[in-house]
Amino acid sequence: MLQPRMARLLLLPGYALLALTLIGPLITTLVISLGRRAPSGGYETALSIENFASVLSRSTAFLNTVQLSAFGAAICILAAIPVAFFIAKHLKGSVRYTVLFLVVLPFFTSFVARTYAWYFALGGRGLPAVLEWIGLGRFRFLNTDFAVAIGIIYAYLPIAILMLFVAFDRIGDDLLEASNDLGRGKVETFFSVVIPLAMPGLISTYSLLFILLSGEYLIPMLLGGGKVYFIGNAIVDLFLQSRNWPLGSAVAISLMSMMIVVAFLSQIFQRMANRDGRIG
Amino acid sequence: MRLAPEAEGGGANAPDDRTKGQRMNDGGGTFRGVTKKFGSFTAVNDLSFEIEAGSFVSIVGPSGCGKTTTLRLIAGFEFPTVGSVFIGGSPVERMEAYERPINMVFQSYALFPHLDVFDNIAYGLRSRRNRRPAAEVKARVNEIIGKMQLSGKEHNRVWELSGGQQQRVALARAIVNNPKILILDEPMAALDKKLRRDVQFELQSLQRELGITFIMVTHDQHEALSLSDRIIVMNRGRIEQIGSPDELYNRPASRFVASFIGDFNLLELEKPAAGGTVDVAGRVLAVPQERAGEGATIAVGFRPDALKLSAAAPGAGGEAWRATITNVIYLGDKVEIKLDCPSSGTLLARADVARLAERRFRVGDTVHLTVEDSDFHHFTK
Ligand SMILES: Nc1ncnc2c1ncn2[C@@H]1O[C@H](COP(=O)(O)OP(=O)(O)O)[C@@H](O)[C@H]1O
Ligand SMILES: [Mg+2]
C-alpha cells in the first residue's frame, strides 16, 4: 500500500492538469461574462450581470437545443433499448463481445468525417435524388430538424447502447426466469422486471445523452445549415462573428448551468429509482 | 381458502397418508427418453422416469451431473434435444415456462428486488395470464404470509430479510399459485446448518399439507433420505437408480449409489467374478440369487453398521480379517471407527456406544473384523 501522503503527492500532476485545463478556462469565462464588449469587439473590464439579462435574446437557440436534445435523447434510448437488451440477454460468449465491438466501431473514424458523410447522404445528390428517381416526389432533408435528428441519433446511439447494455446485463437471468415461471411472458416480463430494474441506468443514460446533445455544435451546423440553431452555434457566432465575448461567455455559462441542473436532477431520480431497485 | 391445485382426478393414486392431497391430482410427471445437449456436451442423457402425483421426489447426484438441467426441463426453461416430458399426462415440450402449471423455488431465490414482500408473493396472481381480482389476491397472499410466518414483513424490501425469510418468500411466491408441481433447486444451499434442519421439517409438513408434487434437487444425500418418498440418483447425466430411501440404502443398484447414499465400505475385486461365488481377500461369498443374471460381480461391500470388531479371533461361523484402528470418533450415541486393513484398505465401522460400553477401542489397537455373508452387497456395475 502507498502511504497516504505519497498517494496525494502522486495525484498532484492530475490536479494541476485539471486546474489548468478545466478550472482556469472556467474562471476566465466567468470573468469575461461579467465584463463588457469593447467597442471594436472582444472584452473590456467591467462588473455587471447585463450579459446574463441579454442571454434571453438567444432564447430560440435555447429552446431549439432543449427540444432537440430531449427528443434526440429519447429517440436514441428507444432505438438502443432493443439492441442493448438483445446483446445483454440473448447473445453469449464471444458473439456478444464481437457485436459490442461492432457497435463502437464508428468511433474509430473521425466524428467530423461521419457527419460529413450524412451531409452528402442527405444533401441534394443523396437520398432526395434517389427518392425523386424512384418517383416518390421531391424531398429536402438537409437543413431541417429531421436531418439534425438523424445526425444526432446516428452519432449518439452507440453510447446509448453501451450504457443500456451495462444496465440490462446486471439484471440476473434468474429474475427473468422467475417472472416467466410465475406466468408472465417475455413482453410482460420486460415491462414488469427489466424496465423497473434498469430505471437508474435509463435515467443516467438519458441525462448523459441530453447533456452531450445540448453541447452539440457540429451536427446542427452541418446538417441544420444555420436554420436549426443550437446554443453551441450561438456561442460560436457570438465569439467569432459579432465578437461579443462577454455575451458569448454568459450564454456558455448559462448552458453549463442548465447541464448541471440536469445532472443534479438525474442524480436525484437515480437515487429514487435505486431505493426501489437496489440494482444501479 | 384452497391451496391445493384445482384440478381433480387424473388417475394417479395419492399415498393414503395425504389427507388434503386426495382431491387432486394430475400433478404427476413423466420423462420419456429425454436427452439434453448443449452444443456437443450431453448434460442429460436418455432420462426416463415417472413421478407420482403428490409425492416428494428428490434428485441427488454430484455437482454437474445434470440435476438443475433436469429441473429446468420440467419447468420449461430448457427444451429436450430428444424425448418427451409429460405433466399430468399431457405433453409439455411445446409449452413455454409461463404456460406450465409448475412453479419453481430458485437456488438464488430470484426475488424481485424492486418489489416488497407482498408484491413478490402476489406477482403470479397479478400476471396477465392468471390475473385474479384484487380482493382475492389480497386474501390469498395474506393467508400465505401468515402460513409462512412472514406476518409484519409484508412491506419490507426483500433484501432486508434474513436468508431464512427470503427462502420462505420464495416458497410463498411459488405455492400461492397452486402449482401442480413445485420444483426446488437446492433450496437449503444458502441457509446455515442449524436453520436447515428446521426448514427441512417445515418443507416436509408443507408438502404433506398441500399435497402438491415436490421435486427437489439437493446434493445433500441426508436431506434426500429424510424428506423424500422417492429419490432419483443421477451421475454424469444418467439415472443410476430410482427408489425409496429404504431401497437405495439397503439395495443400492450400483457402486456409485452405495457410496453416494450413506457411508459404504466398497471392495473392488481384482478381476470380475463370473461364477456363482466371489473371492474377497480369501473369503468366499455366494453371489445372491437376485444378482445372478446381471453379469460378473466387479465389487462387493457393506455398510459401516455391518462391520463388527472384536479383540479375539472369532470362533466358528465368522471369517475374520485383521485391521488397525486409525481413528475413533464419538458422535454422541454412536461411535465411528476408522480402520486400516491390509487386505481391503480403509474401512469404516459404526456402532452404538451402548453396545461398545464394555469394550473400549483405542487408536492403534489391532482388531478382528466380522461381516455376515448376508450383509455383503454385490455389484455388477
Ligand atoms: N446453458 C448451458 N450451456 C452449456 N452447458 C451447460 C448449460 N447448463 C448446464 N450446462 C452443463 O451441463 C452440466 C450439468 O449442469 P447442471 O444441470 O447445472 O448440474 P447440477 O445441477 O447437477 O450441478 C454441467 O457440466 C454444466 O456445465
Ligand atoms: Mg445445480
Automatic annotation (TrEMBL), chain A:
Pfam families documented for this protein: BPD_transp_1
Domain ABC transmembrane type-1: 62-266
Cross-referenced PROSITE patterns: ABC_TM1
InterPro entries for the chain: MetI-like, MetI-like_sf
Main location: membrane
Membrane topology: Multi-pass membrane protein
Keywords: Cell membrane, Membrane, Transmembrane, Transmembrane helix, Transport
Record localization: Cell membrane
Ranges that cross the membrane: 12-34, 66-87, 99-121, 146-168, 189-213, 247-269
Family per similarity comment: Belongs to the binding-protein-dependent transport system permease family. CysTW subfamily.
Protein name: ABC transporter permease
Annotated organism of origin: Shinella pollutisoli
